[in-house]
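Risk register update: the risk of archive-format incompatibility is retired. Evidence:
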Amino acid sequence: MDWVIIGIAGFLGGMLNAVAGGGSFITLPALIFVGVTPVSANATGTAALLPGYLASAWRFRRDVEFPANLKFIHIAFIAVSGGCLGAAILLMASEQLFSTLIPWLILLATAAFIVGPWLLEKKSSSIKKSEWHCATTDLKTSTACLVLLAVCVYGGYFNGGLGIILLATLGIMGQTNLHGMNGLKNIISALLTTVAVGVYAAGGAIVGGHLLLLSIMAILGGYAGAAVAYRISQRILRGFIVLVGLLMSIGFFLR
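Archived output:
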């Protein structure tokens, strides 16, 4: 029964990540339910979803745009540093602390799913591109680096809802081209997740058997999700993810 639960969670997690994000809302609780410790569950679930990040980064590589006068080398350094730091904090912190933070982290990620798309849509429609360019020019590079670093540390620590949080951050930093934002978001996610998984593995936090099954099912779910994405509206998908996030956060609070 444990393997069935893990397989279904991997499939659904890969599907959700392919169409709207939020796969960790499924994989994390499933791993904890079958007896994996919270820190190892977070590390293993993140590692299992890594192939999807890498594939998405490659798919959008030609659409990448950089905000606030930052170049690729700056972005890469911030992503790698933040991912490494966040992963190290996860491994050094106690299981009890992470278990206490789980419902709050899921609630934060769920809030990002609710507010993020609305915020981006509102700003994109109400502010002219020239005004965005002015705002981006005025934004200090150091401030942009600190904001992005904080998000990358979060991604290395928890990873849940990272995509939409990154999109909202890039929007605040002045970007309006959704394809360009998606391209950069996927590259940052792939970089920080890759280094975070390396830290998890070095710390012995990844459960090998569960990882293999989760990865295979996540890949299959990703292919299925690509087909589903054309048949279900984004509003319904996001509503479903928000519902799952709220239920999971309530469940962990009660637990």
